[in-house]
């Protein structure tokens, strides 16, 4: 969304949080009170979300997200280094 602060974190930075190759879940936090885990089928089709309102779980997740965000690189410097010099994408063929 416009005005949001976007940051980039290399996947290697979260490898220790993905035991056995299990990917981190997609989550949405609403303050420090509630957390939603977004659910998908194995084919990647959206199923819905699971509400988590256990205060200890929500606080732990919010703290971990804040730590990851703090370690991540600002989007503008990432874009300038990794994307800006790339050629434009080829037009999709139909």
What topology emerges from the helices and strands here?
Elements: E1 7-8, E2 26-30, E3 34-40, E4 46-52, H1 55-71, E5 73-74, H2 75-82
How would you characterize this protein structure?
It contains two helices and five strands, in the order E-E-E-E-H-E-H. It has helices spanning 55-71, 75-82, and strands spanning 7-8, 26-30, 34-40, 46-52, 73-74. The strands form two sheets. A three-stranded antiparallel beta sheet has the order 2-3-4, with helices on one face. A two-stranded antiparallel sheet has the order 1-5. The longest helix is centred in the last third of the chain and has 17 residues, at 55-71. The two termini are 30 Å apart. The mean pLDDT is 91.
Helix content: 25-40%
> What is the overall shape?
extended
Q: How much of the sequence is in beta strands?
A: 15-25%
Number of helices: 2
**C-alpha-based Rg, rounded:** 17 Å
Main sheet summary: 3 strands, antiparallel
Order of helices and strands: EEEEHEH
Number of beta strands: 5
Structural class: alpha+beta
Oligomer: single chain
Low-confidence stretches: none
**Order of strands side by side in the largest beta sheet?**
2-3-4
What does the average pLDDT come to?
Answer: 91
End-to-end separation in angstroms reads 30 Å
Question: What attributes characterize this protein structure?
Answer:
94 residues; alpha+beta; three-stranded antiparallel β-sheet; 5 strands; 27% helix
């Amino acid at each position: 969304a416009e005005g949001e602060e976007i940051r980039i974190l290399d996947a290697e930075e979260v490898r220790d949080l993905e035991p056995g190759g299990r990917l981190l879940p997609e989550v949405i936090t609403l303050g420090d009170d509630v957390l939603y885990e977004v659910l998908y089928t194995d084919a990647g089709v959206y199923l819905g979300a699971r509400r988590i309102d256990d205060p200890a779980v929500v606080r732990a997740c919010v703290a971990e997200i804040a730590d990851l965000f703090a370690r991540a690189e600002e989007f503008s410097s990432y874009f300038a280094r990794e994307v800006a010099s790339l050629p434009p994408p080829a037009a999709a063929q139909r």
